[in-house]
């Protein structure tokens, strides 16, 4: 069984989380549009998507608390926008630095699995992650996409010949 909490496991999944950071505004718009489409078809929105919601959490370095990362709109002083976790603000570059150095501190939200085309949960992924539902889509993405430098990924996931 994989240790879903290990730094090595999180480092393998970091390309998915990097994309969620770098494409946050685009992904947020896709979620909003998906909810609009569902409501227009007579269904209820599947998830609540707030104005500043994102697809990620930041694990607080001192307390270990899982803090929602909120995306703040660009302003005159911060044209690229900022991220906020509790009362602390971060640039995208700062969060990418955390992801590179300590990938276990960036965690996906359940909203990440609601995006069109995002890999679905399956039983094997659920079993391999010890039942961690949030990591299952990340694991599926890792198993179905080729990432630079992932020569050992197939062996890690038991898919090697």
Account of the 3D structure:
- This protein is α+β, with helices and mostly antiparallel strands.
- The protein has one domain.
- Helices cover 39% and strands 13% of the residues.
- The protein has six helices and five strands, in the order H-H-E-E-E-E-H-E-H-H-H.
- It has helices spanning 7-22, 24-40, 92-101, 123-128, 136-144, 153-156; strands spanning 56-59, 66-72, 82-85, 88-90, 106-108.
- It has a five-stranded antiparallel beta sheet, with helices on one face.
- Helix 1 (7-22) runs antiparallel to helix 3 (92-101).
- The two termini are 18 Å apart.
- The model is unreliable at 116-123, 133-139 and 145-161 (pLDDT under 50).
Short summary:
By secondary structure, this protein is an alpha+beta fold.
Which percent range fits the helix content?
Answer: 25-40%
- Report the order of strands and helices: HHEEEEHEHHH
Structural class, from secondary structure content? alpha+beta
List the strand order in the largest sheet: 4-3-2-1-5
Number of strands: 5
Report the oligomer.
Answer: single chain
> Radius of gyration from the CA trace?
16 Å
Mind summarizing the main beta sheet?
Answer: 5 strands, antiparallel
Number of domains: 1
SS element count, helices: 6
Task: Kindly report the average pLDDT value.
Answer: 75
Our measurement of the CA-to-CA distance between the termini, rounded to an integer number of angstroms, reads: 18 Å
General form:
globular
Q: DSSP strand (E) fraction?
A: 5-15%
Unreliable stretches covering 5 or more consecutive residues = 116-123, 133-139, 145-161
